[in-house]
Design brief:
Radius of gyration: 15 Å
Structural class: mainly alpha
Helix content: 40-55%
Low-confidence stretches: none
Mean pLDDT: 93
Largest sheet: 2 strands, parallel
Shape: globular
Number of domains: 2
Length: 105
């Protein structure tokens, strides 16, 4: 999903002193190109917002967690059932998807 690529760009180009990867714009662009070769990128569509709105109300989401909720909304809109993430704790509330830590594979 575009959101994942945008978030990767933010972290990849952030300096290592600020908990980023410190990659250049060119290197980050090449990495994103690789991701797009290996993974399907589902486009943002209008239904995602309606699904997001339902989820934030249903799960009482506030603050920075609204961004994770948007990812779940996009997953549900595109019928994606599993999320592979190191950040499993922020997704535990969402029983609508199966969250998997890569270390458990």
């Amino acid at each position: 999903m575009p959101q994942n690529l945008i978030e990767f760009w933010a972290i990849a180009t952030r300096p290592t002193t600020a908990n980023g990867l410190g990659l250049s714009i060119v290197k980050t662009s090449l990495e994103i190109r690789k991701f797009k070769r290996y993974f399907t990128v589902y486009n943002d569509i209008p239904n995602i917002f309606a699904e997001w709105e339902n989820l934030v109300l249903k799960h009482n989401v506030s603050g920075k967690n609204v961004h994770d909720t948007r990812l779940v909304a996009a997953m549900l809109t595109h019928n994606i059932t599993h999320l592979l993430t190191f950040n499993t704790k922020d997704f535990k509330r969402f029983t609508e998807v199966t969250v998997i830590d890569p270390q458990n594979i």
